[in-house]
Amino acid sequence: MVESAITATEAKSALVELMDKTVDADLHRFADHLKEAEADFSKEANTVNFGPWQCDLNSKRFAFVIASPPEIYLEYSGSFLRQSDGKWIAKVEFKRQT
């Protein structure tokens, strides 16, 4: 059975939980910004943005790029995983500093 795509609401909830629980100080600084961000649906099918967070709902992937401080860029990407209880979580799988 093919699992359905994650919804925008589920994606945002999973990202907020990730941000609230993270020990990554750079990532944690943007938690409040994410909580206040409205869903902005892209022209691309099943893609939604919450501020700088970009989420592909079909592939269950996300990406986020921040400047911290302005001359250093941090890139995060990961996936949304459904737990056995049906709840979605966000998992960072890649972090790069340039």
Question: Can you tell me about this structure?
Answer:
It is a single chain. This protein has one domain (8-97). It is 24% helix and 39% strand. The protein has helices at 8-21, 25-28, 31-36, and strands at 39-41, 47-50, 53-56, 61-67, 73-82, 88-97. The protein has a six-stranded antiparallel β-sheet with strand order 1-2-3-4-5-6. A hairpin with a 5-residue loop joins β5 and β6. The chain starts with 7 loop residues before the first helix and ends with a strand.
Which key terms come to mind for this protein?
globular; alpha+beta; 98 residues; 39% strand
Mean pLDDT: 87
- Count of helical segments? 3
The tally of beta strands, per DSSP, is 6
Strand residue percentage: 35-45%
